[in-house]
Amino acid sequence: MSTIHFVGGEKGGVGKSVVSRLLSQYCLDNKMMYAGLDADQSHSTLSRFYPEYTQAIDLDHFESADRIMELAIEQDVQVVVDLPAQSERFLNRWMEENGVAEMCEEMNVRCVYWYIIDDGMDSAGLLKGFLQRHGGSMPCVVVKNMGRGLDFGPADQSIAQVQLPPGSELNILTLPVLHTATMRKIDELNFSFWGAEHFADASQPHLTLMERQRTRVWVKKAFAEFDQVLAYSAAAAPAPVEPAPAPVASAPTPVAPAPQAPMAQTQMPLTNTRAAYVGVSYEAGAKASPSDTETTDEPKSLYPFM
Strand, helix or coil at 153? Predict the structure, then answer.
């Protein structure tokens, strides 16, 4: 089953792009079919950090927004759509005028809206309005970003005041905070979160040992939160095909074993250069020795845009 993950929230600066990056990395790490769509023209975050898997779209134009459904229907894939602030009206218009909800039900496509909030009163008010309008029509995930505040009491009150119809699906997650200087360095080096954890070439810019460890712990905590919503998708990812066992000989004449079936998923070998870890084009320098990097087996999506 394909799933479309709309990552949004009407307020700007609450961490929508960080959640989009984490969702993308979650899909890659769990070997899911993944495609990213950048609807935030001002930041183009997914295009920056995951360019080989990302296309840009414009919600103002139906022909561009249509790509969301086209990707989800072509094959089973996790489509992550990074939405800009104040985009709800554009998304609503596209969905309503094209019968997207009905089409998703007919084509067995799941839609999930990730609503990112900080601890402000304005964020809580916007969340309440969103849940009243959409909480009963699609699964919603409210993400409390601890990097944007610590007291989410107003948001909790807003959620409690919304009367959702029976059968509605609402999840509430908490995104832990990553050390500010470490996050800033990851962004400055244009690392994916996988690259931030693993790239350690002494001849090129990279995170320190403890910065990599902080990132690793933070990503692990975030993924544990995501498991509440995404575990079903990881379980549905195609499993590698086991090699066919050799048949048991029933006669003195030896019987050749059956050839091994090809693996359903493959990993592309990567060079030990910084270009393999960053999300933007980078002229690869001298290759690092194997000891310079912790690993070179970066998770690769099965659905890249090349």
Answer: helix
| Per-residue model confidence as pLDDT tens digits over 209-251 | 999 999 999 999 999 999 988 875 555 444 444 445 555 444 4
- Residue with structure tokens 């961490």? 15
Catalogue all structural domains in the chain, each as residue range(s) with its CATH number. 2-178+227-236 (3.40.50.300)
Q: How far apart are the first and last CA of the chain?
A: 24
Cα distances from 96 to residues 10, 13, 64, 245, in angstroms, run 19, 27, 16, 52
**Long-range contacts of residues 49-55, Cβ cutoff 8 Å, at least 24 apart:** 49/21, 49/24, 49/190, 49/191, 49/192, 49/279, 50/21, 50/24, 50/192, 50/279, 51/279, 51/280, 51/281, 52/301, 52/304, 52/305, 52/306, 53/24, 53/301, 53/303, 53/304, 53/305, 54/305, 55/305
Q: Pick from 1, 49, 58: which is nearest to 25 by CA?
A: 49
Chain centroid offset of residue 297 CA: 19
- The mean of the pLDDT values for the chain is 83
Identify the bridge partners of residue 5 per DSSP, sorted by sequence position: 80, 112
Helical spans, DSSP H, in 141-192: 153-161, 180-188
